[in-house]
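Input C-alpha cells:
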C-alpha cells in the first residue's frame, strides 16, 4: 500500500498517502528517507513468501509484533505535541470507531494482498497492491460530481490497459497467477477504505496513535481469517516475520512519516515506482520470475497511471 502528509500506514502494503505540495525545507536526507522507505516496503512480498507461516498469518505477525514499539512512538508523539494542550488529542469514541473501521479494511487489504503475493509475480503484486491511488482518484471524481480531466482520463486508461496486459499475461501462465493479480487488485480497493477513515482520525490524534489503534483492531481480524483458512500460525523460523514487521511497519513507515510531507505528489508517485521495480528484480533473482516485453509494457502503463493519479490525488480526495 502508500500514499504528502504523514501516513498512518505506509504504504504497504500498499503505497504512500496524499499530501501537501513540496516544501522548501526538503533536503537530501528527506530524499534518502523517501527512497529508503519505499525500498524497505518493496522487500515485503519477498519476506511474505519466505515466512513458513501462511500468508495471512504473516500479515498478523507483521501488525502484532511491533505494537509495543508503535505504542511507545505514539506516547512520545503525544508528549511532544502537547497532549491535551493543543497538539495530538486522546481519541474519543468517534475517533476510536474510525480507527477500528480503518483497521478492519486494513486487515482485509493485508489478507488479500498477502494471499495474492503467494499466487502471482512479485512485480505484479506490488503494482496492483498500490492501485489504491488510482482507485482513490476515481472515487474522488465521483465524490466531486465532475467529469475527469485529460490527465485523469489518461491515468484511468493507462491503468486499465496495463492491468489488462498484466492479467492477460498471468492467464498465459496459469489461472492461479491471474487469481493472484485479482486478489492484489482487491487489496488496493480495500486500502482506499482504510485510508479514508484513517486520514480523518490522523489529523486529530497523530499518525502513530492511528497506527497503534489500527494494529490493535486489525490483528485479531487477520488472526481469525488465518485460523478459518487453516493456515500454520506459529513460525518455526522467526527471522522473516520479525524482519517483515520491522521493515514494513517500523522502518518503512517511519522513513515515510519523516519524509513525505516535504515532497510534491509527482515526486511521491515517481518514488513509489521504485517498489515494483525492486520487487520484480527480487522475483527474478530469487524465484526466476522473468519479464517478457509485454509484461514490461503493462508495468510501465500501470506505473504511469500511479504517477498521474498521484498528481491528481489531492484534489480528488
Amino acid at each position: 500500500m502508500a500514499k504528502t502528509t504523514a501516513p498512518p500506514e505506509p504504504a504497504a502494503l500498499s503505497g504512500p498517502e496524499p499530501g501537501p505540495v513540496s516544501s522548501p525545507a526538503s533536503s537530501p536526507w528527506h530524499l534518502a528517507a523517501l527512497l529508503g522507505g519505499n525500498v524497505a516496503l518493496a522487500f515485503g512480498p519477498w519476506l511474505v513468501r519466505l515466512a513458513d507461516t501462511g500468508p495471512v498469518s504473516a500479515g498478523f505477525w507483521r501488525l502484532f509484533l511491533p505494537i509495543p514499539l508503535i505504542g511507545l512512538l505514539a506516547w512520545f508523539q503525544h508528549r511532544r505535541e502537547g497532549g491535551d494542550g493543543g497538539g495530538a488529542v486522546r481519541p474519543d469514541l468517534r475517533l476510536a470507531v474510525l480507527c477500528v473501521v480503518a483497521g478492519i479494511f486494513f486487515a482485509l487489504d493485508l489478507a488479500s494482498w498477502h494471499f495474492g503475493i503467494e499466487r502471482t509475480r512479485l512485480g505484479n503484486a506490488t503494482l496492483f497492491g498500490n492501485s489504491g491511488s488510482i482507485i482513490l482518484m476515481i472515487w474522488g471524481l465521483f465524490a466531486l460530481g465532475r467529469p475527469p480531466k485529460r490527465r485523469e482520463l489518461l491515468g484511468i486508461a493507462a491503468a486499465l490497459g496495463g492491468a489488462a496486459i498484466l492479467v492477460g499475461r498471468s492467464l498465459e501462465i496459469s489461472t492461479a497467477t491471474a487469481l493472484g493479480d485479482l486478489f492484489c487488485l482487491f487489496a488496493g480497493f480495500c486500502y482506499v477504505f482504510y485510508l479514508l477513515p484513517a486520514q480523518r482520525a490522523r489529523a486529530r490524534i497523530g499518525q502513530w496513535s492511528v497506527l497503534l489503534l489500527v494494529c490493535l483492531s486489525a490483528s485479531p481480524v487477520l488472526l481469525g481469517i488465518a485460523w478459518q483458512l487453516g493456515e500454520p500460525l506459529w513460525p518455526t523460523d522467526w527471522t522473516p516475520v520479525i524482519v517483515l514487521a520491522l521493515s514494513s511497519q517500523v522502518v518503512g513507515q517511519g522513513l515515510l512519516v519523516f519524509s513525505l510531507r516535504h515532497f510534491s505528489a509527482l515526486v511521491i508517485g515517481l518514488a513509489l515506482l521504485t517498489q515494483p521495480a525492486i520487487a520484480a528484480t527480487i522475483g527474478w533473482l530469487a524465484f526466476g520470475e522473468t519479464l517478457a516485453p509485454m509484461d514490461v509494457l503493462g508495468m510501465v502503463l500501470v506505473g504511469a497511471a500511479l504517477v498521474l493519479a498521484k498528481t491528481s490525488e489531492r484534489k480528488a480526495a
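Residues 1-24 have pLDDT under 50 and may be disordered. The radius of gyration is 18 Å.
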